[in-house]
C-alpha cells in the first residue's frame, strides 16, 4: 500500500531528524495554552529548508529574507497575547506588518503614556485608532445576529482598518435585501463595505495532513493528526459516516461534526491506520513536522496542504470572520490569501511548524488566485477535548 509504506519511511525519518520519541513528544493539549512559547519546541530551527523554498517561490523572497520574515513572525506571535494584556481596555487590535517586520498594536486615545512606552519597549509598533477592539467585536457580534441574504459574503473585524468589513458579492450591492442588511450593519457600529466573489465550500465528487479521504462520493483532505484520529472540515461528513483512505481502505468514522454554524469535525482512526505529526508537502516541499498550534497574527505568512492543489502559501488576512455560505453562516473563521479548490476542504493550514486550522472554503482557484477561509484548529481541539499530535 503506497501511503502506508511511505508513512513508515516517514516515521523512521522523524525518529532520526525530529527526535520523535514517546519521551520527547510534547503534545499541545486543548486544555493547555497552545499559544504560549512553552507549547513549542524551543530548540528547533526557525524554519525548514522546505518552508523557506516555498516562501521564496510564493512571496518572491530570497532565502535570507524568508528566514528573517519567519523569525519576525515568530516574535510577533509570541508578543501578541502580552500586548493585548498590556493595552487593556485601550486595545484596538494587532497585526503583523511585513514591511517593518514588527507587530503593530492599535490603541485608543485614552491609552496612557506608560502603556504606549511598554508596548514599544516590548518591540511593537503602536498606532492610535478611534475604536477599541471591544467595540468592534461587539459590533461584529450584533451583525452576527442579523439574517444575512445570499448576496452578503462575509464580515469580520479589520484591525488595521479599525472597522468591521462587510463583504458583498459582486453585482449584488444594489439588491434590496443586501442594502437593508448593510443599513442594519452600519447601525451596529463602524462598518466598511467591500465587493468580493461569492464564497463556496470546497467539495469534490498513516493520517497525514493534506492527504485525501473519502466519505461516500465526496473527497476531502485530512487536516491534522490528533491522538486517536484527525481533524477536518464539518461539511465533509456527518457523525457516524464511514471514512475511507487514499487507497479505499476503512479508516474510521466521523465522531463529531458541525456545519453550518461551524465547519469542523474529527474522525477516529483504526484498522491499521495510525497518526503522525506531519503535513504533506506533495513534492513541492518536503513533508512538514507539526510542533504546536500557536496562533499566527493577521499579516503573517501561512501555507496550506490539500489533496487537489497540494501546497500553496499566502498571508493571514482576517480573523473571526463570519462567512455566509449558501448552506448557512459559519462563524470564527480565519481568512487568507491562499488559493484552494474542490477537494482541498479539511486540509492543513500551517505557519512555520505551528498548526493553524482546517480548510473550509473560499472563492477563486489556484490558476487565477483567490481567498480561502479556515476554521482555527485550537477551537476544534477545545470543542472535542482533543490533543494535537506533535513532533
TrEMBL record:
GO terms for cellular component: extracellular region. Residues 1-22 form the signal peptide. Disulfide bonds join 220-236, 303-313, 339-366. Keywords: Disulfide bond, Hydrolase, Protease, Serine protease, Signal, Zymogen. CDD domains: alphaLP-like (cd21112). GO terms for biological process: proteolysis. The keyword Disulfide bond applies. SUPFAM superfamilies: Trypsin-like serine proteases (SSF50494). Residues 26-45 are annotated as: Disordered. This is Serine protease. It comes from Streptomyces pilosus.
Amino acid at each position: 500500500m503506497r501511503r502506508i509504506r511511505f508513512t513508515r519511511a516517514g516515521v523512521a525519518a522523524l525518529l532520526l531528524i525530529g527526535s520523535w520519541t514517546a519521551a520527547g513528544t510534547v503534545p499541545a493539549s486543548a486544555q493547555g495554552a497552545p499559544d504560549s512559547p512553552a507549547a513549542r519546541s524551543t530548540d528547533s530551527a526557525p524554519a525548514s529548508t522546505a518552508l523557506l523554498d516555498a516562501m521564496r517561490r510564493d512571496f518572491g523572497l530570497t532565502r535570507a529574507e524568508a528566514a528573517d520574515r519567519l523569525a519576525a513572525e515568530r516574535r510577533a506571535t509570541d508578543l501578541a497575547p502580552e500586548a493585548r494584556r498590556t493595552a487593556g481596555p485601550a486595545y484596538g487590535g494587532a497585526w503583523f506588518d511585513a514591511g517593518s517586520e514588527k507587530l503593530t498594536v492599535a490603541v485608543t486615545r485614552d491609552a496612557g503614556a506608560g502603556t504606549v512606552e511598554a508596548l514599544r519597549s516590548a518591540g511593537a509598533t503602536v498606532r492610535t485608532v478611534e475604536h477599541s477592539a471591544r467595540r468592534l467585536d461587539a459590533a461584529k457580534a450584533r451583525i452576527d445576529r442579523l439574517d444575512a441574504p445570499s448576496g452578503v459574503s462575509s464580515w469580520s473585524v479589520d484591525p488595521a482598518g479599525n472597522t468591521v468589513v462587510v463583504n458583498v458579492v459582486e453585482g449584488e450591492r444594489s439588491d434590496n435585501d443586501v442594502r437593508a442588511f448593510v443599513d442594519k450593519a452600519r447601525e451596529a457600529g463602524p462598518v466598511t463595505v467591500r465587493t468580493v466573489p461569492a464564497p463556496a465550500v470546497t467539495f469534490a465528487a498513516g493520517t497525514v495532513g493534506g492527504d485525501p479521504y473519502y466519505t461516500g462520493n465526496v473527497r476531502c483532505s485530512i487536516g491534522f493528526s490528533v491522538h486517536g484520529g484527525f481533524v477536518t472540515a464539518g461539511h465533509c461528513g456527518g457523525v457516524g459516516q464511514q471514512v475511507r483512505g487514499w487507497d479505499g481502505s476503512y479508516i474510521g468514522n466521523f465522531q463529531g461534526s458541525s456545519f453550518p454554524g461551524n465547519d469542523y469535525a474529527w474522525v477516529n482512526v483504526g484498522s491499521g491506520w495510525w497518526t503522525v505529526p506531519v503535513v504533506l508537502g506533495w513534492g513541492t516541499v518536503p513533508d512538514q513536522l507539526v510542533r504546536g498550534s500557536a496562533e499566527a497574527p493577521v499579516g503573517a505568512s501561512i501555507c496550506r496542504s490539500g489533496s487537489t492543489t497540494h501546497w500553496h502559501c499566502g498571508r493571514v488576512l482576517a480573523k473571526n470572520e463570519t462567512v455566509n455560505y449558501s448552506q448557512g453562516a459559519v462563524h470564527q473563521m480565519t481568512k487568507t490569501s491562499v488559493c484552494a479548490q474542490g477537494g482541498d476542504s479539511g486540509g492543513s493550514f500551517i505557519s512555520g511548524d505551528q498548526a493553524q486550522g482546517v480548510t473550509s472554503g473560499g472563492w477563486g482557484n489556484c490558476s487565477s488566485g483567490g481567498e480561502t477561509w479556515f476554521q482555527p484548529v485550537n477551537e476544534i481541539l477545545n470543542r472535542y477535548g482533543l490533543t494535537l499530535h506533535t513532533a
